[in-house]
Design goal:
- The structure is a single chain.
- This protein is α/β, with parallel strands linked by helices.
- The protein has 2 domains: 111 residues, Aspartate Aminotransferase, domain 1 (Alpha-Beta Complex), CATH 3.90.1150.10; 208 residues, 3-Layer(aba) Sandwich (Aspartate Aminotransferase, domain 2), CATH 3.40.640.10.
- It has 12 helices and 13 strands.
- Strands 2-8-7-6-5-3-4 form a 7-stranded mixed beta sheet, sandwiched between helices.
- A hairpin with a 7-residue loop joins strand 12 and strand 13.
- Helix 3 runs parallel beside helix 9.
- The longest helix is centred in the last third of the chain and has 26 residues.
- It is globular and about 55 Å long.
- The structure holds pyridoxal-5'-phosphate.
- The site of pyridoxal-5'-phosphate has 13 residues, from helix 4.
């Protein structure tokens, strides 16, 4: 069999495979699930789930919990095997062959990955030099390129910057393209456009349980949008895409009063401390560390002259961070997710040592 060139050139996703003591590479929550919530979930599993039966294809209870939390109707939400699955489903099924997906670069790499895999035309709209989104430039590019779909993260992974909700709304209102706003990190900022779901026909908002809710292992994400579009997602998804235990875990966490909000609040405070520490390093080592971007997420993104060398220096101390090469630019970037307070101290000390050693 001859496989298409587009898949032959791909390499499997390569996460950090080393088991690190301190994991700051994937923007997960550093909080383990409290035992009381585990207990509730296990009890529900024993009472409700039948191991020999397929799970609820509509993930009804967990979608209901999500709808309540997000202030929307249950008919306006569908659950996915992580928001990642929903990104893939939207890009694969909402466009005609040869349709055009626009992204605003740099952004979460999976948007472009699925667009390429689906054989779509992919237009990369650049951010400004400050890595912020310029809504006017985005609107103009969508019009010029006749884009069918715009997808971007807000707050953004990797930049950690957030675009005010009013600006997002301006973009959505200015285009006929479907706009997918990925709010994976919005629990750490206050600029959600979930309130516009249903009002704007061309808006879908993606949410995930993998970040502030601390359930990355369960792989549960949601798409919120007009009922008509959500119905389409129900028709194109595989029937049992979210397993029974993940549905119960997500429902349990989303229903726990104030739990996600408390976690987000703590993670915001921890990230603020990490940001201050990294800014201090930037001031002390201006040759090696450049701009530290303000953070609206649970991670800090900053310029570094030798990101890969720093990553490896930290790995030797069993600390995982994400390095992004600068290619032709004088500096690349590092992305460091917050860990717990005492762990952040270790991360900062390791960064200091690496910089002192001249990397
Ligand atoms: C912006 C953004 N969207 C989506 C995802 C994927 O989330 P999930 O775990 O729900 O698939 C991530 C994960 O890092 C992300 O950063």
């Amino acid at each position: 069999m001859r496989l298409p060139q587009k898949v032959l050139s791909l390499t499997p996703y390569a996460p950090v495979t080393e088991i690190c003591r301190i994991r700051c590479d994937a923007n997960e929550s550093c909080f383990p699930l409290p035992s009381a919530l585990w207990d509730t979930a296990v009890k529900r599993m024993e009472e409700q789930a039948e191991a020999n039966r397929y799970p609820d294809p509509y993930a009804s209870a967990c979608c209901k919990a999500a709808a309540k939390k997000y202030g929307i109707h249950p008919e306006q939400v569908v659950a996915g095997n992580g928001s990642d699955e929903l990104i893939s489903l939207i890009e694969n099924s909402f466009l005609e062959p040869g349709g055009c997906v626009a992204t605003i670069e740099p952004d979460f790499s999976m948007y472009g990955f699925y667009a390429d895999l689906a054989g779509l035309r992919h237009v990369r709209i650049p951010k400004g030099e400050d890595l912020r989104i310029n809504p006017g430039a985005v609107t103009a590019a969508l019009e010029r390129e006749q884009a069918d779909l715009l997808i971007f993260s807000n707050p953004c992974n990797p930049t950690s910057l957030v675009l005010p909700a009013a600006e997002v709304e301006r973009i959505v209102r200015s285009t006929r393209a479907l706009v997918v706003v990925d709010e994976a990190y919005m629990e750490f900022a206050d600029e959600s456009v979930l309130g516009l779901v249903g009002e704007l026909e061309n808006l879908i908002v993606l949410k995930t349980c993998s970040k502030a809710a601390g359930l990355a292992s369960a792989r549960v994400g949601f798409a919120a949008g007009p009922e008509e579009l959500i119905r389409v997602l129900y028709s194109v998804k595989s029937p049992y895409n979210v397993n029974a235990f993940s549905q119960i875990l997500a429902q349990t966490v989303l229903e726990a009063p104030g739990y996600v909000e408390d976690c987000a609040k703590k993670l915001r405070a921890y990230t603020a401390g990490l940001y201050v520490g990294i800014c201090a390093l930037a001031a002390d080592f201006p040759e090696s560390v450049g701009t530290v971007y303000p953070t609206s997420t649970n991670f800090v993104y900053f310029e570094a002259k030798e990101p890969e060398k720093i990553r490896r220096a930290l790995l030797r101390r069993s600390i995982a961070v994400r390095a992004m090469p600068g290619h032709d630019a004088p500096m690349g970037h590092l992305r460091v997710s917050t860990a717990r307070l005492e762990e952040n101290e270790e991360v900062l000390a390791a960064l200091l040592d690496a910089l002192k050693e001249g990397v």
